[in-house]
Amino acid sequence: MENIKEMLGLMQQNLSKVLGMANLTITWVDIVEILIISFLFYHILLWIKSTRAWNLFKGIMVVLLFVVVAAFFQMSTILWIAENTFNVGLIALVIIFQPELRKALENLGDKNIITKLFNLNKAEVKKFSDHTIDELIKAVYAMGKVKTGALIVIEDEILLNEYIRTGIDVDAVVSSQLLINIFEKNTPLHDGAIIMRGDRVVSATCYLPLSDSLGLSKELGTRHRAAVGISEVSDSLTIIVSEETGNVSIALRGQIYRNVDADFLKEKLQYMQNRNHEVTRMELLKRRFKNEK
């Protein structure tokens, strides 16, 4: 605590020297206030980026740019329209994004957030094990042999809770037997996608966004378009087993790789497994401000 006070005192002295010519005074309370506002603003931006509000935010930035240009050139009509729609726009944003705002406030009220904030030592983030990779490969090619359709989404850094909530909770350790049983025809959980987080199947029968890319082949069905769709809005990897041909494909970063073999699939899974394997506790805290369950 003493070290923090000394640091704040030093910052106060330096800022006072800089602002001395303007006859401004600054106290350690002002410094703390600036830090708090910066912290909240930073995490609000993180929250915006991890939800569908991100595209809206970028659109608002474009509109504000036009307003700045209009103000510079004194375009009175545009400025009048912007002024009279500002308050209505704020109310509309609150109504449209009420679920996201509610979730963000719930995250801020999490009782564990303060203790995790000051735990800055390194922590290893476990994505999934080699055993999980082996079980995945074993299951998808076994289903391919008997032409059992499957759609398996593997979550990476971007949380997929928005889509997990559309399915049925499973929360089970990944195994080839489990995956085969889930996608067995005429079973309650076979329709839709399953979503994996780490070494566990989190949810089944999940709905995914369909890609509207014109570059996709017309012969691809809903399952493949859903796989590409989720890869366009996240950094996940999705495995598809075709019900018609039994071929295994993967979707990653908006691209689909068709008819892949086991070696290619294993290579992609291992790359995903080892990417950004170690992060700080502060980075883990940032993820809590995403659209968490």
Helix content: 40-55%
Strand content: 5-15%
Shape: elongated
Strand segment tally = 9
Return the CATH class of the largest domain. Answer: Alpha Beta
The major β-sheet equals: 7 strands, mixed
Strand order of the largest sheet: 3-5-4-2-6-7-8
Number of domains: 2
Number of helices: 12
Task: Give the CATH superfamily of the largest domain.
Answer: DNA integrity scanning protein, DisA, N-terminal domain
Q: According to CATH, what is the topology of the largest domain?
A: YojJ-like (1
**CATH architecture field of the largest domain:** 3-Layer(aba) Sandwich
Secondary structure blueprint with pairings:
Elements lengths: L1 H18 L8 H22 L3 H20 L3 H21 L1 H11 L4 H5 L4 E3 L5 H16 L4 E5 L6 H4 L3 E6 L2 H7 L10 E5 L2 E7 L15 H12 L3 E5 L6 E5 L2 E3 L4 H13 L3 E3 H8 L5
Parallel strand pairs: 2-4
Antiparallel strand pairs: 1-9, 2-6, 3-5, 4-5, 6-7, 7-8
Helix pairs in contact: 7-9, 7-11
Name a few traits of the molecule.
YojJ-like (1; about 290 residues; about 15% strand; seven-stranded mixed beta sheet; alpha+beta; 12 helices; single chain; elongated; about 55% helix; two-stranded antiparallel sheet; 2 domains
Task: Note down, in words, how this protein is organized.
Helix content is 54%, strand content 14%. It contains twelve helices and nine strands. The two termini are 34 Å apart. The protein has a seven-stranded mixed β-sheet, sandwiched between helices. A two-stranded antiparallel ribbon has the order 1-9. It has 293 residues and is an alpha+beta fold. It folds into two domains: 2-117, no CATH class; 130-276, YojJ-like (1. Strand 4 and strand 5 (200-206) form a beta hairpin.
